[in-house]
Amino acid sequence: MSTALKETYFLLFPTCIPVRGHANSLIMDLDNGAFIEIPNLLQEILSSDLKNNTIQQIKSIFKNKYDEGIDNYFQYLANNEYGFFTQNPAPFQKPEQIFYSPFKVISSILEYDQSSAYDIADVLSQLETLSCQIIQIRLYDFIAISQLSKLLDNIKESDIRIIEIMIPMNEQLVLEELKLFMINYPRVRLIIYNSQSKKRVVISENPKREIVYSEHNLNKGSKEIYSIKSFTINHQMYYEALQYNTGLHRKVCIDTEGNIKNYLSHKKSYGNTIQDRIEDVINQNDFQKKYHIHNDMIEKCKDCQFRYMCLSNSDVKFSNNSHHKIQSCNFDPYTNSWN
Amino acid sequence: MHLLFSEEVDFSTNRVIDWLYYNDEKYEKHIDHNKAQKDHFNFEDKTIAVSFGGNITDPIFKVNDIKDPVDINSTWFRRPTINSKTLSPEKQNFGVYPKEYLEYSNQKRMRTFWDFLCYNLQKTKKLGSYEIVDLNKPIILKKAQEHNLTIPKTLITNSIDELRNFFNLCNQKIITKSLGSVIPEYKHQVNHPKDHYLSFYQLTKLIDNIDTAPKKFAPSLFQECIDKEYEIRSIYLNGELYSACIFSQLNEQTKVDMRNRPANHPTRYIPYQLNQAIESSITSLMQELTLDYGAIDIIKGIDGQYYFLEINPVGQYGDVSLQCNYYLNKKIAEYLINNSND
Amino acid sequence: MIDQSNKYKDLIQIPEDESIPFDMHYICVSEKKTSNLEEKFVYMKKYRALGSITDFYKKNSNIIDIDS
Predict the structure, then answer these.
(1) Homologous superfamily (CATH) for B135-152+226-313
(2) Are the beta carbons of A131 and B22 separated by less than 8 Å?
(3) Tens-place pLDDT, residues B181-203
(4) Which of A262, B25, B247, C23 could, after both became Cys, cross-link B20 (CB 3.0–4.6 A)?
(5) B112: three-class secondary structure by DSSP
């Protein structure tokens, strides 16, 4: 081997992050929003100090048992642009593992039905003031589109990015009217549940917007769904997940009775919008406690390779000296299989 | 109040506003008055007074709204456009003095006034500069060299013979780029392919055959083509450098200009630590130019040398900030807040 | 962006002249897909400008399976 090769280092791009799971590992590619699965042994190799050890030295750290595998994998990773070879690794730094958000509320979910007595328009304008970026409105009873339009008119010039509206199928939902509604309110994502058939009506291609009809039902007992296609891989999500519970961090939810919670399925309520301002409630230390309990701290999740891309709003309980999600998912990181 | 000089749409300004808003700070946005909406800040509806000299011991700089003083704590010249209103048509019909002459004289005076106003704003806490949107590329290259930065071999000429000599001197591989600012991007609607338009723009162009090149041309900028290991973009912000190595040599197209790449093929950025000597050279260059902000392009050649290319004093920092997790929007907002005049 | 100036040579003809800089003969052209800007950006009071809508870095909740 030539001297040049002897002095060669292999580095991963810092946006390509090896994540170890109990049974299997992966590399998250934050730039491409994708991942590749890798064996745990490769994860171990990639997590060794690549910047201060030449490939030669890395091989000897692993007692030269995997020389050929290391060569092949490094070449594969370089060819597929997950990493690169360099003679001089010193100037390359890792990004600081920090996350800050300029939004006092990042996300919010509102539940509303016939019995709801809280002022949803007022809640929306409070959320606007708090810079809430994404809102989901779960309607358990039908509301006329004209009424929804009136509500949304108040927040037409807000910086809310996405308003997801889930509404039960009803004969009053006329397609032409819905299309117009979607065009007039470009932030809206419309999901019509309890539909007889599953379909999508495309409103525009770029950006992709559609009215989604789903045969699923939605009620207070509905549970979150976990699957590979529900995962999100990007820079902010990753850095947030290292420090925060990505589901609950700066989320505020209002149930049908107006109770202010971290998430709808949580037992604990911290106030009620009928008499409390949302800002006062979310500023309580107690309300913010769950923001900080992230997947690395939670049993099972901490052993899962998907922990920095998975979003769960489950409550977290503390028992036997450890944190547990109350609503666990159907992936088993110990067998690397979905149940 | 923080006064932001920007464009009609600039997402970096939006992100800095997010942080100002988060800190409960007041801010106003000033844009080209031809595009301004009613919620933009403008000076036309204000009264302005600046007094100094003689035995005035307490010089005054005040900007008043209808009744209240406008309190400007800091100013960010992100993308300053300062121009004046033209005379309204109903006020143009008098006398024989040509209205273009009148307009010209008005504009000249107003320009001087706006410059003076911004000069006074610059004395408050500020970031960026109203007068510098476009730097003189060849002057910057010369100054960079004076500050011990290595620059590529450079030629400015309108002579094909000089160009041919330079081409041979540079191993028959040179680049050309605009001497001043690049052409404005232009969108041209077409029917085919369907739903597409053509975008016209300028990149750094490799010249490896001089015989097919134009023979007659106005003075233009040429540089030797540096075989690069990678590119570095450094964001200079008040004495700090935030650098990123940009890996774009992975495919052929991006070898000369990294913007030339397929849309779905992301460029990889890595936080990068420039060596002490280069950092202090850049800092002293920026100080000489009295710039507190700039996006600086550097190439690391395969010869191991770092080549300074140019400074864009209103360049974008968004990609470097996001990919390297530098939080520059937050840092800019905090700089404006912490350095305020109150 | 991929430079397709070879394909559109005739659209960027600039005469050779002592008053035209060298680099002007190398204008690039790219085909781009028209996107409906109005649907991606709307006027937002906070920014006194257009701000982006329709995408965000994370989801709110996956309560109904609509991803398929």
Answers:
(1) ATP-grasp fold, B domain (3.30.470.20)
(2) yes
(3) 778 888 888 777 777 888 888 88
(4) B25
(5) helix
